[in-house]
């Protein structure tokens, strides 16, 4: 493998190389608390929730995988647009997020119930420790764009989150952002 550069458009989060993928409401079934609002969104155009770009590198421990994510502004009911969220398959691996633009919340929790919610603002660098599930919510009116880097062998376990969800969710009422228990 040879060293290389990738260019990132700071305004859109797109990268000059890599695979860009889109997640819509239809890809997030069961993730939102208000299922009736999710069905309405699905029936009214299946809006884009987020897009992400990843560089294709070996998924091995001696490589660092990286990419960008753009979470669009919007809500399902009162709940902010968000990423699916995941643990790493290799639980003992961390991740770093660098926020380029927008305003968000990073929700994290462990399998034994510890939780933390961090604010994401332009210039913030967030550390997701090993053993913590993580999800990002856009709480603003513009796209939330961030860069992520993690060990090549980390993998993604979305299934655990699809089954149990997170213990909190982020809602917005006008300009007020609220973190509520996900009962």
Explain the overall architecture.
The chain is mainly beta and about 180 residues long. It has one domain (about 20-180): Jelly Rolls (Sandwich), CATH 2.60.120. The protein contains 2 helices and 13 strands; from the N terminus they run βαββββββββββαββ. It has helices spanning about 35-45, 160-165, and strands at about 20-25, 50-55, 65-70, 75, 80, 95-100, 105-110, 115-120, 125-130, 130-140, 145-150, 170-175, 175-180. It has a 6-stranded antiparallel beta sheet, with no helix packed on it. A hairpin with a 2-residue loop joins β12 (about 170-175) and β13. The chain is globular, with a radius of gyration of 16 Å. About 35% of the residues are buried. The mean pLDDT is about 95.
How would you summarize the topology of this molecule?
Elements: E1 19-24, H1 35-43, E2 48-54, E3 64-71, E4 75-76, E5 79-80, E6 95-101, E7 104-110, E8 115-120, E9 125-128, E10 132-138, E11 144-151, H2 159-164, E12 168-173, E13 176-181
Antiparallel strand pairs: 1-2, 2-3, 3-11, 4-5, 6-9, 6-11, 7-8, 7-10, 12-13
> Approximately how much helix is present in the residues?
under 10%
Global structural class: mainly beta
Neighbour order of strands in the largest sheet:
1-2-3-11-6-9
Identify the CATH class: Mainly Beta
The biggest sheet amounts to: 6 strands, antiparallel
Uncertain ranges = none
CATH architecture: Sandwich
Total domain count: 1
Compact summary:
The chain has 183 residues and is mainly β. It is built from 2 helices and 13 strands.
Structural key phrases:
globular; six-stranded antiparallel beta sheet; mainly beta; Jelly Rolls; 2 helices; 183 residues
């Amino acid at each position: 493998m040879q060293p290389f550069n990738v260019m990132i458009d700071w305004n859109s989060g797109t990268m000059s190389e890599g695979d860009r993928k889109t997640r819509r409401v239809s890809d997030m079934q069961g993730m939102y608390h208000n299922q009736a609002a999710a069905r309405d969104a699905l029936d009214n155009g299946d809006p884009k929730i987020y897009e992400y770009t990843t560089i294709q590198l070996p998924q091995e421990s001696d490589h660092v995988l990286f990419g960008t994510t753009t979470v669009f502004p919007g809500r399902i009911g009162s709940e902010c647009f968000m990423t699916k969220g995941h643990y790493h398959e290799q639980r003992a691996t961390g991740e770093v997020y660098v926020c380029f633009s927008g305003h968000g919340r990073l929700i994290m929790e462990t399998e034994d119930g510890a939780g933390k919610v961090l604010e994401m603002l332009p210039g913030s660098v967030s550390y997701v420790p090993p053993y913590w599930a993580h999800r990002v919510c856009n709480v603003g009116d513009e796209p939330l764009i961030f860069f992520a880097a993690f060990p090549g062998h980390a993998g993604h376990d979305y299934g655990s989150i699809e089954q149990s969800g997170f213990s909190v969710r982020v809602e917005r009422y006008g300009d007020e952002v609220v973190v509520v228990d996900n009962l």
